[in-house]
Write a structure and sequence with these properties.
heterodimer; A: 2 domains; four-stranded antiparallel β-sheet; 10 strands; disordered C terminus; B: nine-stranded mixed β-sheet; five-stranded antiparallel β-sheet; globular
Chain lengths: 259, 1175
């Protein structure tokens, strides 16, 4: 056998056979490629979008929750390398704060939606490409995302009228993706603490923890305000925000320095 | 006129055109030159920092009252406080979508419904208990509706439950079971399952094989509501794995890799001992000794909490603005032994009020001081005439010396303990001087007691830091310093005392007693009960708290600074316009001692004061009076007079001690002479260098304050990051500071001349000597933060030098001071100098040395030269200030006290008619010794008889040989009140009943005043208890006064109101009123038939009924055809509906406040009644 393989004629024959096989394969692909089932199906594409959205949403939440509810904090207190937005603030000493984020929940929803929208669009583009490559006709209209915090989850609604045609048709207008999150409870508690600070200039963390035993409430005093860190103990999800209310100067200042 | 065309374009024409052009350009150029001059003036004027309410600041904050330059120009701003600006006024923002209410929200940020009540005491925000399945939520009605809709269940809202605790216990544990739907399975309540459209299996788990779901049993363990449970593979809860109970002291937690029950108590270490703390216990940790003013610089109070088995630390606010208070509660147990449960809290340190109490007379001061648990009375008793009591903080505050404002603030506070003690010597029969008064003042005890007073005010004086390093540059004295043993002993205060704690104290009588429980609240007020349990009651307290501080402390200091800034008399103030205040502020912050050159004479000429000193006739003539007044002054009474004095000079208390450049200060007055012993209290300074910076991490949390206290070279870096540290920034720096003149800071008309690297001369512009009695501001600059001293001996080392430059011991770059040189004649008269000594006068050399934060001081002194103009005094004295400037006399007042200052030693007289000095009949009492000179000059005191006159003419004559006299009188006018001050209006009125639909309510207390000194303008205060202290109205100092209370609950109230005007006339009144809160819906008291169904309610109401809605969910306010309900006719208490005997009426009523029961008010079945009646 070895001698057979070693002979030149045998080698030549082998090469010719391999070449023929390659040509046949190419011809088959060329003429019968359409009938090969694509690896990505329309139904699988929805699942793809769902996973993509969930990943983006978790990223968005993580970022927003560590920064007091903003993606790009404008007015913040720096704590542990995080720019923590002020939920309630006053520049003066001795006075209670002015609420800066009365609609904290809505703010967060808008921030999350604005963060994930380009990522969802990118996912749709990617999906379109894959489907087109598989020979499908894909039409996706203008994509809009909305986020809504609710107890135990955040619901992402993607308005993306889409139609896919290939061996049948699939179309959908909206997609709803639910991501497990305790943000709603954390934000509600944050609002409650901010209101208390706006009225009284301080809050009692132990009382809050007694009423909400699953949430750990930490208050860290800083020179430029205080940072609240709310942690949902079972999931370890955190929400951080800052407050500056009834601040006391070191010593006491003259009238012109009261600010 | 004929125009000749050839001339238009010709050489001559060209010249003309050029001239025209030059003329036009010149006009503009001239205007430009002029305008640029005006511009520089107006630019100067606009450099004044104004304040404004910014809709949005450059930093992104909304509705902030700050410097107008910080406002974002793309948004609105207004030059007033934000509460007066519509778009930034705080109010309540209510979201109709979620039902959430947000307090203190400006209208511009509210995208939904906005109401002017910043505390959200409006019906929409009234909270009740919302039951959702097995959970209970204390929230608003609308939020309950939203939540219930989300869960797909009917709303169950109980408005009658108005506290969270009761609500939580109301939660009904509805039975759960497996809910199978769409091939999925979840554990839900029956109601939720039905709404989801699933099939409910009561008492079964999703993993039950009979349900044929994909859920596998006992997939994992986990915690739920503090118990350990099994969970199936679909994440549904199954049966309990381990029974934990908070009431039994256990909860579910991950222990290692297993979820099981563990104790909720904590094993902690306190004072080096292992202790078990119960769940919920909290306790305090202190860094050093506390109480009785012993808190050390850099220390902080820390609260620890044991919660659910975890120990947490919550440091209180830094600079000891908060203190940790702890109370021990004794609990008995079944065995009869006692256990102690500790509770701790961080609360505000009320130290500022302690300082404020000293403004009152002695009796009031002591009574107020004793009532405040954060204060105590410090007794200083050195000698018979040097004894006094002062109210000081129990927990002295910390200061931030790294900012300019902080340094000023610290000097302000500490300077209160700067005192001088005058020892009186009398010449005995043996011609020897013997001490008769205050002889103990030059003993060590004086300095020690004064240092204790000094350290009790804050981070002042000679004291230790948290690591036991003692420094002594926080004080100076011209006599016996603190011994090294005494200083070493101070280090013990850096150690904690086992078992020490700060007591919570009773704060009820502070802040006007304005807490929620002040009212005699009625049984109707369930909120009152609840709040009593929770101990809430901040609303008015906070506002009052601010007011007390805002007025008591801030204003007085502000006043002191502003009046300083307003000094007239041509002393060459720097800057222009509003800058003056700022510049002055800088000066005043470091003004320190007026350079009393006179006092240097003794050093320069080494005069031996044991020789009899002949004194000029004028002084000798009043020798006796001076002796007496000195005796009193030497006692340093810190009552009203002293406070008034200190108020003027405030933190420049050390100006009193103008003698600290002098080793001996003895001036003879006839057969008596005085020796002034001074003690100057300054901010405590950290040790030089940075050897201890790294020790910051040894404490529970390193902070900027603690880091600064460890060394001058310590800096807190990476603030706000995860790498915060305290480091030494001077490890290799061995250089000393370099000095130069402070060119930007010198009085107008004077200059720094002969400047070289070794020093400079201060002279008039053009080179002349300084005129006598002229105040000259000047300064030196160091190339890095440094502490500077001044003396007259160039060979003294830095530590030996007697005084701080400008009186400030702060490490700063710009050092400022004031130079005032008396006339040679005055010096000659004061000290009885010989002609040889007089000849030497005129030129003075001062030597300055500075030390950097690395501890390195100059070896060679920096020389400052100056001279005083020679020649006879030909100028009449000038009145530089009158206090008060604007005098108001009370309606019934008969006399009025005032003080006038002259720029040189003088005698002053006054009369009712303008006349020559020599003819004036009334003499003032003037203090003419050069040592009496204070910031404004030489004071003269007078008590005017104002029974028949309010206008007085004052003239003064100096003590020079020429006896220069004022040729024009100083006219001093007083205004007498035309009528007594009266309170003319109050709201609420006396005996008024205020009705409200929900509690707490926001109450606006308004008062109007009339009459008095300024047509009703007065300052009004209030209190809720007779024994409480008055607290100022938030808006006052006019004829309208307003105070908002945001947490008033139902009950009867009494408010005492007191108003005082500028003439110190007082008006007061008391009002009683009732707050009646109606939170219950109307009750139906009678039902009968009379041309229809008739019902009678117990209060005015609106009623509706339904035949279908058995739970009365319909909204009475929005009854439509689709509502399945009908409105009953009739308002008031009687209501009528159509008669349908066969139907069941589900009736609900709502009162005028919007109160209605969460369910039906009553259910009526007419057919049952008819049956019973046999009809």
């Amino acid at each position: 056998m070895n001698n057979f393989i070693k002979s030149k004629r045998a080698q030549l024959a082998l090469f010719i056979i391999i070449a023929l096989l390659i040509v046949i394969a190419l011809l088959v692909l060329l003429f019968f490629g359409d009938s090969i089932k694509p690896w990505i199906t329309p139904k699988a594409s929805q699942e793809y979008i769902r996973e993509c959205t969930q990943t983006a949403t978790k990223e968005a939440l993580q970022k927003v929750e560590m920064q007091g509810g903003s993606l790009e904090p404008e007015h913040y207190l720096l704590y542990q390398d995080n720019k923590v937005d002020y939920a309630c603030y006053t520049e003066k000493y001795y006075e209670t704060c002015v609420m800066q984020k009365p609609f904290l929940k809505q703010n967060i929803e808008q921030e999350v939606a604005s963060y994930i929208e380009p990522k969802v669009k990118s996912c749709f583009e990617s999906m379109k490409e894959q489907l087109k490559r598989s020979g499908s006709e894909v039409a996706v209209q203008d994509i809009k995302t909305e986020a809504a915090l609710s107890p135990n989850s955040i619901a992402i609604t993607i308005r993306a009228p889409t139609s896919v045609r290939k061996q049948g048709a699939l179309s959908f207008e909206n997609m709803k993706v639910n991501v497990k999150s305790e943000a709603y409870d954390l934000v509600m508690l944050a609002s409650s603490i901010s209101n208390y600070e706006a009225r009284y200039g301080d809050s009692n963390t132990v009382a809050y923890m007694m009423y909400y035993p699953d949430i750990k409430v930490e208050k860290i005093e800083r020179s430029d305000g205080r940072v609240y860190v709310l942690t949902h103990k079972p999931s370890n999800e955190k929400f951080m925000f800052a407050v500056r209310s009834i601040a006391w100067p070191a010593g006491y200042l003259g009238v012109e320095d009261e600010l | 006129m004929e125009i000749i065309k050839e001339n238009i374009i010709s050489k001559k024409g060209g010249m003309s055109y050029l001239q025209i052009v030059m003329l036009v350009i010149s006009i503009f150029a001239f205007s430009y030159l002029l305008s640029s001059k005006f511009e520089s003036v107006s630019a100067q004027a606009t450099e004044i920092k104004g304040l404004a309410c910014c809709e949005k600041t450059k930093e992104g904050a909304y509705c902030q009252y700050t410097f107008d330059e910080d406002c974002d120009t793309e948004y609105k701003d207004a030059p007033t406080e934000c509460e007066y600006v519509d778009y930034c006024k705080k109010g309540c923002c209510y979201s109709t979508k979620t039902g959430w209410c947000n307090k203190a929200t400006p209208e511009i940020l509210c995208e939904d419904k906005w109401n002017g009540d910043a505390s959200c005491n409006i019906p929409e925000c009234s909270r009740g208990c919302c039951l959702i399945g097995r959970n209970a939520l204390f929230t608003t009605d609308r939020n309950c509706e939203v939540k219930s809709k989300f869960y797909g269940i009917e709303k169950d809202f109980r408005p009658e439950i108005n506290n969270e605790l009761e609500c939580i216990f109301l939660a009904d544990r509805a039975e759960e079971g497996a809910c199978v739907y769409d091939g999925d399975c979840k554990i839900l309540t029956k109601e939720s399952c039905i709404n989801t459209g699933g099939e409910f299996y009561k008492g079964k788990y999703c993993s039950d094989p009979s349900l044929e779901t994909d859920c596998k049993a006992h997939d994992r363990a986990g915690c739920f509501e503090q118990k350990a449970y099994w969970f199936d593979s679909c994440d549904n809860r199954e049966e309990v794995k381990e029974e934990c109970s908070i009431f039994m002291g256990t909860m579910c937690a991950l222990v290692g890799t297993e979820y099981k029950c563990r104790s909720i108590d904590c094993e902690v270490e306190i004072d080096g001992k292992k202790v078990t703390k119960k769940n919920g216990e909290s306790w305090c940790e202190y860094e050093g000794t506390i109480g009785e003013s012993r808190d050390v610089p850099g220390s902080r109070h820390i609260r620890h909490v044991c919660f659910m088995g975890e120990e947490r630390t919550e440091p209180c606010q830094d600079y000891r603005n908060q203190i940790c208070v702890q109370s021990n509660i004794n609990l008995g147990n079944n065995t009869g032994s006692k256990t102690v449960f500790t509770e701790a809290a961080c609360r505000v340190n009320n130290w500022r009020q302690c300082i404020n109490y000293n403004k009152q007379n002695q009796e009031h001061m002591e009574s107020s001081c004793k009532k405040n648990p954060d204060c105590y009375i410090k007794s200083v008793s050195v000698d018979e005439y040097f004894s006094f009591n002062y109210c000081v903080p129990n927990y002295p505050p910390g200061f931030n010396l790294k900012t300019e404002a902080g340094g000023k603030s610290a000097e302000l506070v500490c300077s209160q303990a700067s005192q001088k003690c005058t020892m009186i010597f009398v010449k005995g029969w043996d011609t020897k001087w013997k001490c008769e008064v205050n002889c103990n003042c030059d003993e060590a005890g004086f300095t020690q007691q004064m240092n204790e007073l000094c350290t009790s005010l804050g981070d002042c004086g000679a004291y230790t830091n948290v690591v036991g390093k003692v420094t002594d540059d926080g004080y100076s004295t011209n006599k016996v310093g603190l011994s090294s043993d005494y200083l070493k002993d101070l280090a013990k205060f850096s150690r904690t005392v086992p078992g020490q704690k700060a007591e919570p104290g009773d704060l009820d009588d502070l802040y006007g007693g304005a807490n929620v429980l002040a009212g005699d609240y009625d049984d109707n007020s369930k909120l009152g009960d609840a709040l009593g349990v929770a101990g809430i009651g901040f609303g008015a307290m906070v506002a009052s708290h601010m007011i007390v501080y805002g007025d008591g402390i801030i204003e007085s200091i502000g006043w002191a600074i502003s009046t300083q800034g307003a000094t007239s008399g041509g002393s060459g103030m720097l800057g222009a316009g509003g800058e003056m205040l700022g510049a002055f502020g800088n000066v005043l912050g470091s003004i320190g001692a007026v350079m009393a050159v006179a006092s240097l004479i003794s050093l320069i000429f080494d005069v031996d004061y044991d020789d009899a000193l002949a004194v000029s006739g004028a002084i000798a003539g009043v020798g006796g009076a001076i002796y007496l007044s000195k005796a009193i002054a030497a006692g340093a009474e810190l009552g009203e007079a002293a406070w008034a004095y200190l108020k003027i000079l405030g933190w420049i208390g050390f100006i009193i001690i103008i003698a600290y450049l002098v080793l001996t200060e003895i001036i003879g007055v006839g057969d008596t002479k005085e020796k002034v012993v001074t003690f100057e209290c300054k901010p405590w300074q950290a040790p030089s260098g940075g050897a201890d910076c790294s020790k910051c991490g040894d404490f529970t949390g390193c902070s900027e304050y603690k880091c600064q206290s460890l060394g001058q070279g310590c800096k807190f870096i990476n603030k706000g990051t995860g790498q915060e540290r305290c480091i030494d920034i001077t490890p290799r720096d061995v250089t000393s500071p370099r000095l130069s003149p402070f060119y930007e800071f010198i009085s107008e008309g004077f200059e720094y001349s002969s400047v070289n690297e070794n020093g400079f001369q201060i002279s008039e512009v053009g080179g002349g000597c300084i005129p006598e009695f002229t105040t000259v501001f000047f300064g030196v600059k160091s190339d890095r933060p440094a502490q500077c001293k001044i003396g007259i001996d160039p060979l003294e080392t830095y530590n030996e030098m007697p005084a701080y430059f400008g009186g400030s011991n702060l490490y700063i770059e710009n050092h400022t001071s004031i130079l005032v040189i008396p006339s040679i004649e005055a010096l000659k008269n004061e000290y009885n100098l010989t002609p040889v000594q007089v000849d030497k006068l005129g030129e003075f050399n001062f030597y300055v040395k500075c030390m950097g934060i690395n501890g390195k001081a100059n070896d060679a002194a920096y020389v400052i030269k100056s001279c005083v103009r020679e020649g006879p005094d030909l100028t009449a004295p000038m009145i530089t200030k009158a206090e008060p400037e604007k005098g108001y006399i009370g309606f019934n007042a008969t006399e009025f006290k005032a003080t006038f200052w002259t720029n040189e030693p003088s005698n002053c007289k006054y009369s009712l008619i303008d006349m020559k000095y020599s003819e004036m009949e009334n003499q003032m009492v003037c203090q003419n010794s050069l040592n009496n000179q204070d910031f404004y000059g030489f004071p003269c005191n007078v008590t005017f008889d104002v029974r028949n006159s309010q206008k007085f003419f004052v003239r003064c004559q100096d003590l020079s040989e020429n006896q220069n006299t004022m040729t024009e009188s100083y006219e001093y006018k007083l205004s007498r009140s035309q009528s007594e001050l009266r309170i003319v209006l109050t709201d609420p009125k006396n005996e008024e009943i205020i009705r409200a639909a929900s509690e707490p309510i926001t109450l606006n207390l308004e008062v109007a005043t009339a009459g008095g000194a300024e047509d009703g303008k007065a300052i009004c205060s209030y209190k809720f208890r007779e024994t409480a202290q008055y607290a100022r109205f938030f808006e006052t100092d006019s004829n309208k006064h307003k105070q908002v209370f945001s947490s008033v609950i139902g009950g009867n109230y009494t408010i005492w109101i007191e108003c005082m005007d500028a003439a110190e006339d007082i008006a007061n009144t008391t009002i009683n009123f009732t707050v009646y809160v109606d939170t219950d819906g109307p009750l139906v008291t009678r039902i009968y038939y009379e041309n229809g169904l008739k019902i009678i309610a117990d209060e005015d109401s609106t009623c509706a009924y339904s035949f279908i809605d058995s739970k009365c969910i319909f909204d009475i306010k929005n009854i439509t055809e689709k509502s399945n309900a009908e409105l009953m006719t009739g308002t008031g208490k009687e209501h009528t509906g159509e008669w349908r005997a066969e139907q069941t009426y589900y009736i609900k009523c709502m009162d005028d406040y919007g109160n209605s029961p969460g369910k039906c008010s009553i259910t009526v079945r007419p057919y049952e009644i008819l049956e019973k009646a046999g009809i």
